[in-house]
Write a structure and sequence with these properties.
Elements: E1 6-12, H1 14-18, H2 24-34, E2 39-46, H3 50-63, E3 66-70, H4 81-88, E4 93-95, H5 97-107, E5 122-124, E6 128-130, E7 139-144, E8 147-152, H6 156-172, E9 178-186, H7 191-204, E10 209-214, E11 219-227, H8 230-248, E12 252-255, H9 260-271, E13 275-279, H10 285-291, E14 300-305, H11 309-316, H12 320-326, H13 331-345, E15 349-355, E16 369-375, E17 380-386, H14 393-412
Parallel strand pairs: 1-2, 1-3, 3-8, 13-14, 13-15
Antiparallel strand pairs: 4-5, 6-7, 7-8, 9-11, 9-12, 10-11, 15-16, 16-17
Helix pairs in contact: 2-6, 3-4, 9-14
Length: 418
């Protein structure tokens, strides 16, 4: 895009203000926009109130080039987004016959079709319609008064899919420039450290550009370039990506992957190796995260959740005397867990995790103490982690899982595991 577009995301729904629903729509849209180099300046949340929604739209018109709304496109009386946006830009709502026909066909299958459903087929005149293949309410986009307006349904699955499939291509077509972005995923160095490492370079850059982003238990560095063609943008990014990888070294676990387990599954497929897991404090989260990825059955044989000492003894065959002497949260027990699950299931790699996710300790270790282990044919590695007494259970569990996956990633790429 030849100009810099500033965006406001306006999320509509009283349930968001009440905290009944987490506003993942704004997060997802922001992430997708950053990947094509569009700046998000404001996130606004407003309830299903026409006066307050009008006020928010008025403010957004003053300060944003692109206004994106989520929610308020459904059939109920409090779904007012289209009406308010159309009024704000002096547009009539007109019936889209194709959408009305589609609504009839969709809703009439096993459901009672009520007249208010057809409200969803009323759209601003002259807009581009985004057909909803994931629900009923269509989205749309139009340009008026020097502004770009995009309206997307609120349910997260519909919002994410429609924005990715319909809105992103629409935005890309507004310019004769091509925007290419790649994300370098990092584990073992935080966002602030990455920022410090590249700060002077980032401040001096315009095109291409770089920006770090924090995730829950890792971070990413996004590199973006604009050019006349996609191929030209890719060529601009090649030396930047090479420079970043060289400077960051082993902490880069992948490019354009969503998570570290996705990077691991790719490596396992290349190496044709399979793993199994014995989990305690993570409660099966390592297995769940891995099996959320399609094709995981090629690489994961299975796992056990040995949450108690008795389960560790009965299911894995760990000597109760060892558990009694060393404690369940120990180097020795973690080592046994990885080795025994590998042997029991006949996998190439076995991993284990045992620790204290809190809020209670065991009288010996502080909360956040976790031992993660990995057994391979030639060696077993055990790492002691201290993840913080103030951290939440979910953080400790996820971070422990990331360390397990990182050990596997390092082993599979020939790096030093510890």
């Amino acid at each position: 895009m030849s100009k810099t577009y500033n965006t406001e995301i306006l999320s509509v729904g009283t349930e968001l203000l009440l905290g009944h629903v987490t506003n993942t729509d704004a997060r997802d849209i922001s992430e997708m926009l950053s990947q094509i180099g569009i700046n998000v300046r404001y996130h606004t949340v407003v309830g299903d109130n026409p006066q307050r929604l009008e006020e928010c739209v008025k403010v957004a018109k003053e300060r944003a080039d692109i206004i994106i709304t989520t929610g308020g496109l459904g059939p109920t009386c409090d779904d007012l987004t289209k009406q308010i946006l159309a009024k704000a830009f002096g547009l009539r709502l007109v019936r889209d016959e194709n959408e009305q026909k589609g609504l009839y066909e969709y809703i009439n299958i096993g459901k009672l079709l009520t007249p208010n459903n057809f409200q969803q087929a009323m759209l601003p005149e002259g807009c581009m319609v985004f057909h909803n293949d994931w629900g009923t309410a269509p989205g749309c986009a139009f340009e008026k008064d020097g502004k770009i307006v995009i309206m997307i349904p609120g349910p997260p699955k519909e919002c994410n899919a429609m924005f990715r499939t319909c809105a992103i291509p629409y935005l890309k077509k507004l310019s004769d420039e091509q925007i290419v972005s790649h994300s370098l995923r990092i584990f073992g160095m935080g966002e602030s450290a990455v920022d410090q490492l590249f700060r002077d370079e980032m401040n001096a850059m315009t095109n291409p550009s770089m920006a770090p982003y924090a995730k829950e238990c890792d971070c990413l560095l996004q590199v973006t370039a604009k050019a006349r063609s996609e191929a030209e943008a890719e060529e601009m990014l090649k030396p930047i990506i090479a420079h970043v990888k060289e400077k960051l070294g082993e902490v880069v676990y992948g490019m354009d992957v969503e998570c570290i387990e996705e990077a691991v599954i790719q490596l396992q497929r290349e190496k044709r190796l399979r793993f199994s897991a014995a989990e305690s404090c993570t409660g099966g989260d390592i297995a769940r995260r891995f099996t959320d990825i399609p094709g995981a059955s090629e690489c994961f044989l299975g796992g056990v959740v040995t949450y108690t000492n008795e389960a560790k003894a009965k299911l894995l065959g760990i000597d109760p005397a060892l558990i009694e002497e060393k404690g369940a949260v120990s180097f020795e027990v973690a080592k046994e867990m990885a080795e025994r699950v590998r042997s029991l299931l006949g996998s190439d790699i076995g991993v284990g995790v045992t620790g204290l996710a809190g809020p209670d300790g065991d009288g010996v270790h502080e909360v956040g103490t976790v031992f993660v282990s990995m057994a391979a044919p030639e060696q077993t590695w055990v790492k002691e982690l201290h993840l913080g007494t103030f951290r939440t259970r979910s953080f400790i569990r996820r971070m422990a899982g990331n360390h397990v996956y990182d050990m596997m990633r390092r082993y599979l790429t020939g790096l030093k595991v510890m």
